[in-house]
Every structure is written in C-alpha cells, then in structure tokens.
Amino acid sequence: MSQKNEFGITHLRHVDLAVPDYDTQRTFYKDTWGLTEVGTDSGLSYLATEGSPEQYVVRLRKAADKRLDLIAFGAESATAVDALATRLASQGIQLVSQPGKLQTAGGGYGFRFFDVDGRTIEISSDVATRQHRAIEEGEAIPVRISHAVMNSNDINKTREFYETYLGFKLTDSLWSQHMGEMMHFMRCNDWHHSLALAQGPHTSVHHVSFEMRGLDEYMRGTGRVMRAGIKKVWGPGRHKAGNNTFSYFLDPSGNTMEYTTELERLETDQWHPSVYDIADPMTQDQWGTADPMSELIAKESFNDKDRGIFVAPPV
Asked: What region holds the VOC domain (predicted)?
C-alpha cells in the first residue's frame, strides 16, 4: 500500500477550537460526546479518544470569540517538518512559527503557518503517544478523530493549495447542477479523506468527525446524544463518497460534530476520483434513513464567519 504523502504528512492529529462557553463545551465533550479530558491548563482543555494513541484530538480554549484555533497534522519525522517549513517559506507561505519544540500537551517538534484561507495549520512530529485501549463491543464512544471539513468560499483555490503545498490528493467530489463543485474530499494517507473542503459563504468550520467502533456503537452513540437533547442536524445515514455513516449534531457553540463509522480505506494508488451529483438521493444517503439534504440543513454547517482568519491563536 503506497498511499504516502510526498511531504511526509501522515494523519490528522487534532482540531483546536476557541469557545466563549468553555465550561459548557467541556461538559458536552466529556459527558455527552464521549471524549476523555487528559489535561487542563489555564483556560485550556485537552480531550482525547480512548481508542487512539494521539495525545489529544480536540483542544478547547476559553476565549471571548468563537473561532478555529488550528488544525494539526502529523509528520513522519523532524526532518520532514524542517523540509516542509523551508519549502513553504521559500514559496511565500506565511509561517506563524519556525520549527521548534512544541509547548502544548505531548510536546513534539513542529511549526505553524497560515493556509490560503487564513486558517492556522500545525505540522508536527515526535509528539508523545498516550496509553490507549481497544474500544469494547457496545461502547459508544469515539475511537479516533476521523476527519475535519472546512468551509471555503473558493474550494478549488483551497484544494489547489493543499495539493500543491501539502501533497494532499483529491479522492472524490460532490457537485450540484446549480452550484458547481460543492465538496472536495482530500487524503494524506489511505483513509478516503482526512480533510474535506465545502463550498460555503465564508471561511469557517463545517464539521469535525469522530470514528466509532462499528455500526451498533455508532447508533448507540447517536441515540445517546439525541437523548441528551443536543440538536441533531442530519442523520443517521450513509454517504456514498467514502461509504461512511453519518450523524451530525451542533455542539453548544454551534460547531457541527459528526459520529461516523466504516469510512473507506483506499486499496490502491490507482484511484480515480468520482464526481457525485448531490441531486441523486443515493449520493447523500444510501440508506434513505436521513431526511433529504435541504437548504436548512446546509445552512447549519455554514457556521459563523471565523474570527481567527490570519490571526494566529495565542497558544
């Protein structure tokens, strides 16, 4: 299997969010969503999944403004980190920090930069792993972070940035007769996507997805979150692109979070991207159990305009 990223990017590590309602969010992610708080620092909460060696998958920061702080991707070595930083800087990409020892939980070696839309991206290697375990049958908590989807008002420009500068590959796209290309699924390893780009009115978080152990655990988790009174945006259903299940909910800050399972893994490098028409009901939901995708549902995932564009988070 040679789905290797040409610049040594290995996987999605974590998504960091700044939230005004910090305490409410901490409670939601721990008690309702099923993450484990592995540490806190002044106004910071680090949340891990029990099934993954990743130090943490979500970081919450107490802040006046809601924003995406950063998206972090792993790299195979410190050498790869240095090479990528040098390459980006030489091509005029604005670095937020030079490669060095990370001060966040788990340490490691990395740097940060702004992507074409102004999101802060971190690339890191040598982050300490955490004790993790196999999730048991019937245990309806996330195994790992699956993917992050970001809104962009020009998804082809954003796609080109990730292909050119970070070596992501296009797996599949969603398309609409009236709107053109609506979503690009991008990969940095053999998972169908670790990152996806959604056409939206502004730069913001579309959703963050968490992989469950299996169908039963996915449904039990979906039910638990529904019973907790959390607003369900869409699902349960099964997408065509990626063949994964979906249940989308709004967290207390209005960020969309997804439970998924059985996301496709690509068997071969000879992958030919498909373009799926969103007008086909099977594209959105192969099962037919979710409500049809509507403008109302779509608007929920536009989210608020991100207030962190081209502003690096303080930590």
From this structure: 11-126, 144-262
CB 260 within 8 A of CB 146: yes
Same domain, 154 and 268: yes
Say what the pTM is.
Answer: 0.97
Is position 231 within any domain? yes
pLDDT tens string 147-160: 999 999 999 999 99
3-state DSSP of 94-133:
CEEEEEEECCCCCCCEEEEEECCCCCEEEEEECCCCCCCC
Q: Does any domain span residue 3?
A: no
User: 223 to each of 28, 204, 239, 286, how far by Cα in Å?
Assistant: 15, 27, 19, 20
In the block, which residue shows the tokens 């390459």? 87
Report the amino acid identity of residue 176.
S
Give a yes or no: residue 243 inside a domain: yes
> Domain containing 86 — which CATH number?
3.10.180.10
Which DSSP helix (H) or strand (E) runs through 135? Answer: none
* Torsion angle (degrees, nearest 10) of CA 303, 218, 27, 102: -70
Q: Which of 281, 208, 214 is nearest to 249 (CA)?
A: 208
Q: How far apart are CA 313 and CA 315, in angstroms?
A: 5
Residue at 314 is within a domain:
no
Each residue's pLDDT tens digit, 269-309: 678 899 999 888 888 889 999 887 777 778 888 999 999 99
Pairing of strands 44-48, 58-62: antiparallel
DSSP secondary structure, 275-294, as one string: EEETTSHHHH-SSS-SPPP-
